[in-house]
Amino acid sequence: MTPTLRALLCLGLSVGLRTPVQAGGSEDQYLPTTESGPQRGDVPKPSIWADPGPIVTNGGSVTIWCLGSLQAGAYVLYKERGSEPLDTRIPQDSSNKAGFLIEATTQSHAGLYQCAYYSTGDILSERSDPLLLVVTGVGDAPSLSAQPSPVVASGGNVSLSCSSQFTSGPFHLLKEGGADPPRHMEAEPRMHARRWQAIFPLVPVSTSHGGTYRCYGSSTIYPNVWSQPSDPLHIKVTDYTVENLIRMGVAGLVLVVLGVLLFQARNDTRGTLNAARM
Fold this sequence. Notes:
Elements: H1 3-18, E1 47-51, E2 55-57, E3 62-67, E4 74-79, E5 87-89, E6 97-102, E7 111-119, E8 123-124, E9 131-136, E10 143-147, E11 151-153, E12 158-164, E13 171-175, E14 183-185, E15 188-190, E16 195-202, E17 211-217, E18 233-238, H2 240-277
Parallel strand pairs: 2-9, 11-18
Antiparallel strand pairs: 1-3, 3-6, 4-5, 4-7, 7-8, 7-9, 10-12, 12-16, 13-14, 13-17, 15-16, 17-18
């Protein structure tokens, strides 16, 4: 182990035991710097993600993972594109990744994170792409409604209105269980109702728009700190093409049955008349 990594290990363990991923404060003086090692662009940059996800409830736990190389001697975490690392971790058991645990998130943990790693020869990799960590559950929940109706035909139009008396910053719309990222919209005042509102249009509506939605409010100063979620709103998308085919099939089946019954009744009538003539 090189002197640089040994110093990082000592400082990183010290920081990790006392303040796992703290943002700012007096503990910053104990954080290691990256000025001691050379930097090269030919070392592949790592990838970064949050587990269980990048949207965390206030007070909940989350782990920020950094995936680099089997040759990595140490991983460093940065916040808000700062020049000094926020925390340092040494990979365990020849692993190619390291995790930075936040045991109880607060508003100060919201923001952009990046990571990097020291490779052979104390070469510092490029930083990862930024990861946005959002903290929710701070402030009263907005309300969410659908106009004109939460039941809409495929190809039609529907708008989701998120409003609040307490939020004057951006609103955020999230579909539960969906792969799409949250949508964001600036709030507009509705003076007659003394509320702030943002309207999210779904145009044109397709079957993929069906599902359960929630919205959140935030302030202009802290757009990554979100309120409590709204009550869930379920959007149902009806496919009239399929429904019409089903209706036509049922109608056709009814006509066939009526035709069979009419044919049978006609034959029965003829049989009765023939028997009477005999």
